[in-house]
Design goal:
It contains 30 helices and six strands. The protein has 793 residues and is mainly alpha-helical. It has a two-stranded antiparallel sheet with strand order 1-2. A two-stranded antiparallel ribbon has the order 3-4.
Amino acid sequence: MNRSYCRTLLVLGPLLPLIVGATASVGSPTPKQTPDAKQQHFTKVILPLLQKRCLGCHGVDAKLGGLDLRTRTAALKGGTHGPAFVPGSGATSRIYQLITGQRNPVMPPGGKLPPAEAELLKKWIDDSGVYVGEPAKSATKQVWWSFKKPVMPTIPRNANAKSTNPIDAFVLAKLTEQKLTPSPRAPRAVLIRRAFLDLVGLPPTPEEIQAFERDTSPKAWEKVIDRLLDSPQYGERWARHWLDIVRYADSGGFEGDKDRPLAYRYRDYVIQSFNADKPYTDFLKEQIAGDEWKPKDRNAVIATGYLAAGPQDIVMQNVKNRADELDDLVSTTGAALLGLTIGCARCHDHKYDPVKQTDYYRLSAIFAPTERREMDIPTPEEQASADKLNEDIDFQIKPLQASANTFRAVANAAGKKPGALPDDQVPNLLPEKDRATFNNIVKQINALEAKRPKLPKAYAVTDKSSTFGKCFLLLRGDAEHRGPEVQPGFIASLPGGESDVHDAGGAAATTGRRTALANWIASEENPLTARVFMNRVWRQHFGRGICNTPSNVGINGEYPTHPELLDWLAVTFVRGGWKLKPIHKMILMSDTWQQASAIRKEAVAVDPLNKLFWRMNVRRLEAEAIRDSILTVAGSLNTEMFGPPVYPPVDPTLRADTFQGINWPEGEDSPKTWRRSIYVKVKRSLLLPQLEVFDCPEISTSVAQRNTTTTPLQALMLLNDPLILRQASLFADRLKREVGDDPRKQIDRAYWLATGRSPNAVEVNSSLTFLKTHPLGDFAQAIFNLNEFVYAR
């Protein structure tokens, strides 16, 4: 079993159609079932388990030992060693004894199954081993959940429901099925701190917390949410999530890791788009094809920085390198926007999803005409001013060029050489009396040319021309081995994906291929786009997605825990004009989001991973939010927005170890660099250590969800790093400035600023004892090391 894990069948065989559904909680009991319930249990629980563990070796690709597990008939017939199982006798069936290690060879080859999975198969066999799709029952192939267009589901009704929020209705329905109840609402101080960290990535002030605790009006919570969504810091927070997904950095990576001085304009575009609540469809179209869709809109041109954001090997420029660059565009677009691992189809048809190798190369052909380029992005006013100045310069240069050309003609004739001579050689072939005159004319021309206005530029992408040559499928993904020609297009198995795309040609500046792709992805008919984005948003708010593989909603991804809720969110999002802020508000207004995070033993016993959202997950802040919180609490945060990245100081030995030597300027530890972390240079070969230690990714590919580790280096960083020590000193200065020299007041203020609450008696006493022998700066540094400071609960 499991020899070919990277292949799950799209069609299990003529006798068993693909009917796959939700993966049940492993270890959940299997009650006595009706025939329909048995079939549903098979499609939702047993079939995904067989696909994952068994069918790679005992299915369509291989039938090791003569055993085929795709149908009940074949399984009962068995292979060279007899039937796979005997209905009603799970414990004595051969398959059960192999997967539990009671017989040799142990199956799967990598080791026996986890006990919970083995128990699921045993109970299924005990209950007669029902299959779905026997010849007499069904011959209809069903579609995987994410490939069907979402429809508005019926909102569940529950007599015990206290909330009218549909989100709570869907969550409560699943909890009720498992005889679970939601957790109580978190305290108001916890809620407002959670909301601040969630929406703007900064802690609230003590005064903001206390004002909310005093506000007993029915609209108090809604007012907090509205204010945060209207805050410019909202865009800075949520842009960082998006930049992870689209693999943004300020350098190109690889050995050269060349800086991209203008890449920051794309980062600023993303921040502005989130703050403006730009419709998601427009947001996508601009990034994929802004230069085609809105060629005169500077922001749309800047948006194509998405296509330029990936790594680039500037040392090796050849056909293989170009094929890899196109692979980056196809794979990132698939994972980030569609939630599909399209890159798996570079060498062969996708082993799980209905994505053919031809689909991959049709998409690759969409991007084939593109090239990275520094493009002018003037405002209309800047362009008009530049045009007027250039017109005046052209008027002055025209007679000078005419005179210079006369001298050039004389020199060319005297030189008797084909082609025009360089200007530095012309004087040597002129009569002596004309040499100074010519040199003076050229000097005047150069001086005028130097006055031409320099328009602002962006690091962006456009097509080389309005047409492009033939594109080919690459055999085994090898750029040196062309296969058949392919036409630009999409994923043929998805709605609207079967059409070819044709070049604009004529007077058009680009091929128009990417506009066609953008329209297809942003279409309401595309079943993936809205679902994938809503799942990402849910994950950022709750710490796990409804589908917990956010960049893979295909057959090999996790089945959603609440598919109806995800569909409801997707349809609501689309009907609301693809606007995100109303979705944020709906989530934060729900009882589900406002739950306390305390552990409840009876709930853990049923749902240890909190897949059903019976409480709020405690989440460690991301690296940027930790650094930004330190700056905020210290009172030193520079709130300036936008512009080129800043370079906080980095140890010289680290700067010298980078591939290009010292290519991280020697920064200064000053307000200039105390800006939010989204404005810190993202250099692929040298990440800011204060961010890297807290799992800031290097981002060579799309990052769907960051790792969250706990290591000694994190504590050592907060205890010893010079930048942290400086902020601790500034924090101490703030405490003295705001409450004076009274240690008791300093302790209380420090806890309020850092954790959003008063210290308890134990904390007060231990802090007073500490301050008797340590300076206030050491105490401030200890506050930065509180677990509660770096976690949202």
